[in-house]
Design goal:
It comes from Arundo donax (Giant reed). It contains 7 helices and no strands. With 146 residues, it is mostly helical. It starts with a helix and ends with a helix.
């Protein structure tokens, strides 16, 4: 039987005191102390906090785009989503294309087959040319609406 159960009230108090004293022997600071200035900005988490834990991501809904409206608000939302979730730029186009429906999905399918993987800036430019309003000097958009 453990000694703790055998000891009376005074013995338990002595054990508690020993435990408290033993706990004070442990360092108060974490073993790994990372100064915020030594952590690259990209590794400081979603809100810039430094911690030794895996960054916590927000649960955000990624909106779908069907090609019927101006893509600029959707592309802006995509940019905010990628920033908040710390999405690597090389995954941006795939993530956005995964959330395309209808005409937009078919457009991207053919674009990817003809051009292969695109960088995010090129994807945005082509999306605006194809689906954007004519006011942005969008000749392909004007042809599409005829």
């Amino acid at each position: 039987m453990p000694a703790m159960l055998i000891l009376g009230g005074a013995g338990i108090q002595q054990q508690n005191d020993a435990l408290i004293h033993g706990a004070s022997l442990f360092p108060k600071k974490p073993i790994i102390d990372i100064a915020p200035s030594s952590v690259p900005e990209d590794d400081q988490g979603v809100l810039g906090a430094v911690s030794g834990m895996v960054p916590r991501y927000f649960k955000l809904d990624f909106p779908h785009y069907d090609g019927k409206d101006d893509p600029l608000p959707w592309l802006t939302w995509c940019k905010q989503f990628f920033k908040g979730q710390r999405t690597e730029e090389r995954h941006n186009v795939w993530m956005a294309s995964f959330h395309m429906d209808g005409d937009a999905h078919h457009w991207y399918f053919h674009l990817e087959r003809s051009r292969g993987e695109l960088p995010w800036e090129e994807f945005k430019r082509l999306c605006n040319i194809w689906f954007g309003p004519p006011i942005r000097s969008n000749p392909l958009g004007e042809l599409r609406s005829l």
